[in-house]
Amino acid sequence: MDSIHRSKIKALLTMEPGAEVLAKGWVRTKRGNKQVKFIALNDGSTINNIQVVANAELFSEDLLKKVTTGASLSVKGTLVASPGSGQAVEIQASEIEVLGECDPMRFPLQKKDTTLEFLRSVAHLRLRTNTFGAVLRIRNAMAFAIHKFFNEKGFVYLHTPLITESDAEGAGDMFQVTTMDLKNIPLDKKGNVDFSKDFFGKKTSLTVSGQLEGELGATAVGEIYTFGPTFRAENSNTPRHLAEFWMIEPEMAFYDLEDNMELAEEFVKYLVSYALDNCMDDLRFLNDKYDEGLIERMQGVIGIPFQRVTYTQAVEILEKAVADGVKFEYPVHWGTDFQSEHERYLVEKYFGKPVILIDFPKDIKAFYMKQNEDGRTVRGMDVLFPKIGEIIGGSEREASLEKLEARIDELGMSRRNLEWYIDTRRYGSVPHSGFGLGFERLLLFVTGMANIRDVIPFPRTPKNAEF
Ligand code: 4AD
Ligand code: MG
Question: In ligand 1, which atom is closest to the CA atom of 214?
Answer without folding.
Answer: 12
